[in-house]
C-alpha cells in the first residue's frame, strides 16, 4: 500500500504539472498500480521463499521451537537496515548538537 501511495504521489508530481487529475486518469492510474503490484507478487511467488527465510507454518508451534523463536526473531540480519539505523542516530545527535550550539549565540541588535 505504501508503494501505491508513493507511485501515485510521484506520478502526480512529475506528470500532472500542478493540475488535478480527472476521474478517468485516476482510474487508469489505480489500474496500473494494481497491475504492477500483482506482477511483483507473482514474481515473488515464482521465485519462492529465500533460503534464510522459514516457510510459514500454519500448525501451532511446539514448546521447543517457541523457546528459541522469540529471542532470535527481533534481531535484524539486514546489514543495510542496520546501517540506516546507525546513520539515523548519528544524524539525530548531530542535528541536536548543532541546534543546541546555535541557540546559545544571540546577537544584540544595535540602533
UniProtKB/TrEMBL annotation:
The chain crosses the membrane at residues 80-100. InterPro entries: At2g27730-like. Residues 40-75 are annotated as: Disordered. Keywords: Membrane, Transmembrane, Transmembrane helix. Residues 40-57 have a biased composition (Basic and acidic residues). This is Uncharacterized protein. It comes from Xanthoceras sorbifolium.
Amino acid at each position: 500500500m505504501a508503494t501505491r501511495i508513493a507511485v501515485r504521489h510521484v506520478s502526480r508530481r512529475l506528470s500532472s504539472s500542478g493540475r488535478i487529475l480527472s476521474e478517468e486518469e485516476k482510474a487508469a492510474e489505480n489500474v496500473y498500480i494494481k497491475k504492477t503490484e500483482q506482477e511483483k507478487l507473482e514474481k515473488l511467488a515464482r521465485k519462492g521463499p529465500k533460503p534464510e527465510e522459514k516457510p510459514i507454518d500454519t500448525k501451532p508451534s511446539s514448546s521447543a521451537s517457541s523457546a528459541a523463536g522469540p529471542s532470535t526473531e527481533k534481531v535484524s540480519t539486514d546489514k543495510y537496515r542496520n546501517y540506516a539505523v546507525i546513520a539515523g542516530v548519528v544524524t539525530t545527535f548531530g542535528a541536536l548538537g548543532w541546534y543546541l550550539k546555535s541557540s546559545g549565540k544571540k546577537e544584540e541588535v544595535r540602533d
